[in-house]
């Protein structure tokens, strides 16, 4: 299986703010993965701290 995470970061934000937001996304969505079977076809939109959709994760065949 292949796990794919795509997140668009705000180019206008500082490098520190982008790193902080990406860290938050990884912690939150990584912790949420236990609710999924992690089989090909599984996936979910990814939201930032302001609840804006900024990407997605998905499981694909290798």
**Residue-averaged pLDDT:** 93
Strand order in space, largest sheet: 1-3-2
Number of helices: 1
Low-confidence stretches: none
Structural class comes to: alpha+beta
Strand content: 25-35%
Helicity level: 25-40%
* Rg over C-alpha atoms, rounded to the nearest angstrom: 12 Å
Largest sheet: 3 strands, antiparallel
Global outline: elongated
Whole-number count of domains: 1
- End-to-end distance: 5 Å
Q: How many β-strands, per DSSP?
A: 3
Order of helices and strands: EHEE
Q: What would you say this structure looks like, in words?
A:
- This protein has 62 residues and is an alpha+beta fold.
- The protein has one domain.
- It contains one helix and three strands.
- The chain has one helix spanning 15-32; strands at 2-7, 43-47, 53-60.
- Strands 1-3-2 form a three-stranded antiparallel beta sheet, covered by helices on one side.
- β2 and β3 (53-60) form a beta hairpin.
- The model has no long low-confidence stretch (mean pLDDT 93).
């Amino acid at each position: 299986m292949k796990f794919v995470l795509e997140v668009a970061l705000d180019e206008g934000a500082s490098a520190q703010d982008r790193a902080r937001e990406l860290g938050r996304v990884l912690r939150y969505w990584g912790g949420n993965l236990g609710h999924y079977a992690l089989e090909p076809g599984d996936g979910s939109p990814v939201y930032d701290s302001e609840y804006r959709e900024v990407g997605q994760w998905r499981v694909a065949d290798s």
